[in-house]
Design a protein that fits this description.
Layout lengths: L1 H23 L1 H15 L3 E7 L2 E8 L7 E6 L12 H7 L2 E6 L17 H14 L5 E6 L1 H12 L4 E7 L20 H11 L8 H26 L16 E6 L7 H10 L4 E5 L6 H4 L1 H13 L8 E4 L4
């Protein structure tokens, strides 16, 4: 009986310790869950030295191996985990997927003397592609990553076979927000950011909000430098996009409040023969919250022979 009570006491203490750890580190628990799911899906977590940076990346292949290479570039303040739904979905649809953390983000290098501009991140992607020995690839970019992807396709056309842009930045539109939106200092700021990113934000307990604020404070200086570089206007692509000739898919959440659908339609109009797919009921996080239809339209577009050119349509969003 005494042994049983000791076992029960140990279990209770472990439960209390686990609960306290979760309370004070909920984002760590969420990360471990995401990474476990990716690992069970056959997604590898790797590092590579590229362009002077130590870059973390996820990699996944189809069950039978092989697959056309597809590089996914995340957005501002994001990381490879943001593609956690798309990576295994696209690998299952026949692609060899790579999703690097850009310098400054995720588990990649975060040098203090960098400006984290679009130019810098583009160079890092070029170095990454070379480091993993890809002579060329399909490229997808989300938000700021879409800007990087389009600039990459313009500056290094031989590296990019086809392009997929998800709620991408890179062209001028009248914005009513600044860097403070992405580096909130209090709970109302976090809730405002969530509302801008998603038309259906999930309620977030206060202890999770506090963990988000602590996490964001660690990288706020990177986001602020990125925003400073982007809002300078020197890398805007409005006048360059007509020279982009790779087959291009533009995917947009119909309810995107961060970068409105009008910006997506303008990118579609500027890129010759691009294809636009608007996902109903989704916002700026379409590749995460509406990943099934987004993965489907992406795979259909990238597999199509001959390449799809032109046209636009609505796609039913599923969450």
């Amino acid at each position: 009986m005494r042994v049983l009570w000791r076992v029960l006491l140990v279990l209770v203490l472990l439960g209390v310790a686990g609960g306290l750890t979760f309370y004070f580190n909920p984002l760590w628990f969420a990360d471990q869950q995401t990474r476990l799911v990716l690992w069970r899906e056959g997604v590898k977590s790797e590092y590579v030295d590229a362009g002077g940076y130590r870059l973390h990346y996820f990699e996944a292949q189809p069950p039978e191996g092989g697959g056309a290479p597809l590089v996914l570039i995340h957005g501002l303040g994001a990381r490879g985990e943001d593609w956690s739904k798309m990576i295994p979905a696209l690998a299952a649809r026949g692609f060899h997927v790579y999703a690097p953390d850009l310098p400054g983000y995720g588990r990649s290098s975060r040098p203090k003397d960098a400006d984290y501009s679009i130019v810098m991140e583009e160079k890092a992607v070029v170095s990454f592609v070379q480091a993993v020995h890809l002579p060329h690839a399909f490229v997808g970019g989300w938000s700021m990553g879409g800007w990087v992807a389009m600039k990459l396709a313009l500056d290094h056309p031989a590296l990019v076979d086809r392009l997929a842009i998800y709620d991408g930045a890179g062209t001028y539109f009248p914005a009513d927000f600044g860097a403070e939106l992405f580096v909130p200092a209090d709970a109302p700021g976090v809730n405002r950011l969530l509302k801008v990113l998603s038309p259906h934000p999930a309620p977030m307990p206060d202890f999770v909000i506090q963990a988000v604020l602590r996490k964001m404070a660690e990288t706020s200086w990177v986001v602020e430098r990125s925003m400073r570089a982007m809002t300078s206007g020197r890398d805007l692509l409005d006048f360059r996009l007509p020279d982009l000739h790779q087959p291009t898919l533009v995917v947009w959440g119909a309810d995107d409040e961060l970068i409105p659908l009008s910006a997506g339609k303008r990118i579609h109009d500027l890129i010759p023969h691009s294809t636009l797919r608007v996902v109903e009921g989704c916002g700026h996080l379409a590749p995460l919250e509406c990943w099934r239809p987004v993965a489907d339209v992406t795979a259909t577009f990238l597999h199509a022979e001959p390449a799809v050119t032109g046209g636009e349509s609505m796609v039913a969003g599923t969450r």
